[in-house]
């Protein structure tokens, strides 16, 4: 398995799809990377030569913030928002939707399966008799 930026990328998939397994790179960025390095986009990750793989590793690690570095940057941005008392920081600290979504309904992803009324909780599966 080729290893880029500490991530084992799948070798049985096209290189564009394989690069999207790295946190911080999507398929659009992967296409740009492949085009700039002049690598055939239809090649699978296992078909890359050692020289192409080394060029790819160097380019990705130098040009992009990925994996742990990107996660640290995101966490520091959230921490900064909380410290300055911004509305978005307040929403992050409370575990509520940050980008203006409604919360009367449809916020199960951020809040978990929290049901406030008596009859609307998740039903238990029927017990066997």
The CATH topology of the largest domain comes to: Helicase, Ruva Protein, domain 3
As residue ranges, the low-confidence spans are: none
Alpha-beta content class = mainly alpha
Radius of gyration: 22 Å
Strand order in the largest sheet: 1-2
- Number of H- or I-type helical stretches: 6
> What's the structural domain tally?
2
Helix percent reads 40-55%
Percent strand: under 5%
**Assigned CATH class of the largest domain:** Mainly Alpha
- Taken in chain order, the helices and strands follow as EEHHHHHH
What can be said about the biggest beta sheet? 2 strands, antiparallel
Mean pLDDT across the residues is 88
Quantity of strands, as a count: 2
Topology readout:
Layout: E1 3-4, E2 7-8, H1 15-19, H2 27-37, H3 50-63, H4 67-83, H5 87-94, H6 108-111
Antiparallel strand pairs: 1-2
Helix pairs in contact: 4-5
General description of the model:
This protein is mainly α and 129 residues long. It folds into two domains: 3-67, Orthogonal Bundle (Helicase, Ruva Protein, domain 3), CATH 1.10.8.50; 68-111, Ribosomal protein S13/S18, C-terminal domain (30s ribosomal protein s13, domain 2, Irregular). The chain has helices at 15-19, 27-37, 50-63, 67-83, 87-94, 108-111; strands at 3-4, 7-8. The chain has a two-stranded antiparallel ribbon with strand order 1-2. The mean pLDDT is 88.
Summarize the structure.
By secondary structure, the protein is mainly α. It is built from six helices and two strands; from the N terminus they run ββαααααα.
Any key phrases for this structure?
mainly alpha, 30s ribosomal protein s13, domain 2, 129 residues, 3% strand, Helicase, Ruva Protein, domain 3
């Amino acid at each position: 398995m080729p290893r880029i930026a500490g991530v084992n990328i799948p070798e049985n998939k096209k290189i564009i799809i394989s690069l999207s397994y790295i946190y911080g790179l999507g398929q659009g960025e992967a296409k740009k990377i492949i085009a700039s390095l002049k690598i055939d986009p239809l090649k699978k990750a296992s078909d890359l030569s050692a020289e192409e793989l080394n060029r790819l590793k160097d380019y990705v690690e130098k040009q992009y913030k990925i994996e742990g570095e990107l996660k640290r940057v995101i966490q520091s941005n959230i921490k900064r928002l909380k410290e300055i008392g911004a509305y978005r920081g307040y929403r992050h600290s409370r575990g509520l939707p940050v980008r203006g979504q409604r919360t009367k309904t449809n916020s199960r992803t951020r809040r978990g399966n929290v049901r406030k009324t008596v009859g609307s909780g998740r039903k238990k599966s029927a017990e066997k008799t």
